[in-house]
Amino acid sequence: MLKLFISPGACALASHIALAEAGADFETQVVDLRAGQQRTPEYLAVNPAGSTPALQTDRGVITQNAAILAFVAQTHPDRNLAPIDDPHAFAAFNAFNGFLSSSLHPAIGKVLFSRPPLEAEARAEAVEQALAKYQLVEDHWLQGPWVFGEGFTLADGYLSVFTRWARSAQLLDLGRFPGLNAHLDRVQARPAVSRVLAAEGLSAV
Q: What is the pTM of this model?
């Protein structure tokens, strides 16, 4: 059985959604980031980087959401969770997930999780830099009801992590981001996503 190491509400939510959408046989183990469990010898033996998610498989551990999403899609081809049979489309899927992990996540993370918290001009500058990343998705990546058009992919679940964070922080203005707001509502209404949120002690935002 697969084991996914998560921290409720953190970015590992994307991988949790992926496994649920795939109907995979898996279990979760919570790593309490606030308590520092990611730095314990036990967890560092799983993921030496000391971060979540980490997916334990029968062939070893896979880390990083983008890699886990690709793995889940490829190991559950019947669920059509990514365009794995089209090299160009699959590259676009991986590129979008790479943008989320390397660009959007650090930008919004700086706003929300800097310690000590950003204040005044520094915070305002970080907010605008983050919102510029959301604007790229709003204007150039949302191709339809889902990121890649008419069909849901695991990229949609990944994007919803960061739109949830922004909406919870009252940064996802409906007037500026109508597409992202509608997309988040659509993702959160999916039965698998509802189950994952409940399992992590979360609710739709």
A: 0.97
